[in-house]
Fold each of these.
Amino acid sequence: MEIDRAIRDCSDRRLQTKYQNATYVIQRAFSLYDFQQVAFSFNGGKDSTVLLHLLRAGYFLYKEEMGSFNGNMDSVLKCPIRTIYFETSSAFPEINSFTYETAASYDLQLDIIRLDFKSGLETLLKEKTTKAIFLGTRIGDPNAIGQEQFSPSSTGWPPFMRVNPILDWSYRDVWAFILTCKVPYCSLYDRGYTSIGSIYDTEPNALLCIPHQSGDKENFKPAYCLSDGRLERAGRAKKLASKNENIPIMSNGLKNTNPHQSCSFSASIIAVGDEILFGSVEEKIGATLCKKLNAIGWRVSHITVVGNDIDLIADELEHRKCKDDLIFLFGALGPLHSDVSLAGVAKAFGVRLAPDEEFEEYLRHIMGNHSTGNRNEMALLPEGITELLHHDKLVVPLIKCCNVMLLSATNTDELEQQWDCLLQLCSSPLVQMGPFISKQLSTKLYDVEIAAVLSKLCLDFPDIHIGCHRQSRAGPLIINFVGKDHERIELASHILSQKFDFGAFSELSSG
Ligand SMILES: Cc1cc2nc3c(=O)[nH]c(=O)nc-3n(C[C@H](O)[C@H](O)[C@H](O)COP(=O)(O)O)c2cc1C
Ligand SMILES: Nc1ncnc2c1ncn2[C@@H]1O[C@H](COP(=O)(O)OP(=O)(O)OP(=O)(O)O)[C@@H](O)[C@H]1O
Ligand SMILES: [Mg+2]
């Protein structure tokens, strides 16, 4: 069978593994369901084109395993699977013609449905028993979140099993398969289209545009030239999330929910580590982070230490994720049994951990052959919410999941480096504002002598944080004024000093 042979003969180990896994899923589906009770959802797109040929190969391998050749090779080389195409008037004519021609060439039993997906499937299921439907959904597709290779249809949809044999395939895997097997594909992909929706929302991908001489028509490179698969949908118009339509999104992706707080950002810090809780490791990164955040005008609202426990991390994040603009989380990142931070993040956001090819590539670079198996466990990242932040000075990019910033720093020197990189990134989540400044006064007055004056001062200066602490019970009381306005801090400390005898307070040098 030509597909199986092409993959076996190629030298691409990764593609061979993906092929084996996908055809395994397909063969299992053919064992589980009657052939007439499964359907293939085909729309002429690149993903469903890959799936078509995997189905042909999977069907062949399944028949071969069952020993059903009967001397008639032709019967096993064809996979006359029931095929459904949801046709709309907004489909590209090239997609329509490719779908029809392909269905005819491979003897697919094509059913054209001119209804929306849900109503169409309801009608289909009433007319023909359909237990499972093969789809070309891949991780990274907006509708892939939470899906597995076998995923029952969602609540509210007619009941059937969604079978997603290429769920873990990347954009690069798809093109590696198409080019290795030399199978025909829709001509739009040779004209710079990288993912195809309707004629109203799809354009060639601008990243493939070839600069043209004035007067010439714009030309585009073929889809397989796109090097960063995460940008395959760059030619698709974005659908606005209606829920958040009224919330301004700032250039760094942070939501500015309160117009009166446009100049105030808050962060919280979560340290993960049983060692810190057992007292065997002293946690210093949190304190350094507080100083750094204050220096760029951010307020730190909360700092916690949690043990290496997925549920505890998820609970903590669930509390903080809506309260703060950014949450810094460090500790428990890696491949060990105790490295559960990413799983905690995934749980807090209700997504699963999925292999991230780009991250895997970075890890492979630094670890060489030291990782085992086909799958690098460290490259599993929360699906659909992860952004990798690159910087030339970092061997591995920083990981950001929604508003959670994961830091791999294990000491304050490493933190310094990651922090500097984070600030320099043009997509930095850290908006830099006027720093917090502070003034410290020391006094030997009794607490009861100054308590009332301090309370009144707090009411008169709501913009200044006035805190008190001592370094020893018998030592002086230290009063700390923190705010962003130097003059207001001076005024508040002056008013306090004036209420008592001259010399009752002395200023401590900051730092
Ligand atoms: C055969 C088939 C089954 C589907 N099943 C579901 C489902 O169970 N739940 C769901 O939310 N969407 C389902 N969808 C809709 C898809 O998730 C998605 O909206 C569709 O592929 C369109 O993607 P697009 O919006 O990127 O064009 C299904 C679509 C097809 C074609
Ligand atoms: N109109 C449709 N008719 C039948 N199946 C569809 C239709 N639209 C989507 N699908 C199913 O959903 C899968 C995912 O769609 P998606 O648009 O992400 O991929 P594609 O169309 O194959 O490739 P591309 O991303 O290049 O458009 C398809 O592979 C197909 O199985
Ligand atoms: Mg498509």
Amino acid sequence: MSDRLLVLVRHGQSEWNLKNLFTGWRDPDLTPRGVDEARKAGKRLKAEGLSFDVCFTSDLKRAQDTLDLILEEMGEDNLPVICDQALNERDYGDLSGLNKDDARAKWGEEQVHIWRRSYDVPPPGGESLKDTVARALPYYVKEILPRVLRGERVLVAAHGNSLRALIMVLEKLTPDGIMKRELNTGAPVIYRLNADSTVESVLDLAD
Ligand SMILES: O=C(O)[C@H](O)COP(=O)(O)O
């Protein structure tokens, strides 16, 4: 197994996940369940025998708090943590703050699914997944990947769609393939990379 370790984890349940609201760049806290999910992720990573050298997260609280809780649970709370907007959730634009069921009632199930899961159709005033790839991927290539290739063990705590953007590239998924790829809150995905930055193995710890 290669030493080139990259773990991606979506934040635990947020207050707005619980209320079923489009969140995007808004900044709600974790719920008590989200805190438990983050702690459980830390326990699972520790049980896998993993430890890290450096961590990345977005500039949103739910991801930063998830990372802190994971590291606390692993007894690794002194690691360097790099926060960057490039890892923020996809911007949901005018949908931010709206209830997802209300949006389905207003615009129809199919349109809302297209906004949530299509590759290149942005929600009104927001980012498509393609737009999210366009800002998250250069950051990954410049800041995260070189460290993984140098043998630093890297943990990234971010968001459903900013991580789907990276996963699309890592797993070489087509626009159709990424539509079906979901990430559970607090569920780590463990990658080992080859020296040419392709994926050697992937282990998804989703329940
Ligand atoms: O920003 C949000 O609302 C969620 O974190 C991700 O939502 P989605 O699953 O509707 O894309």
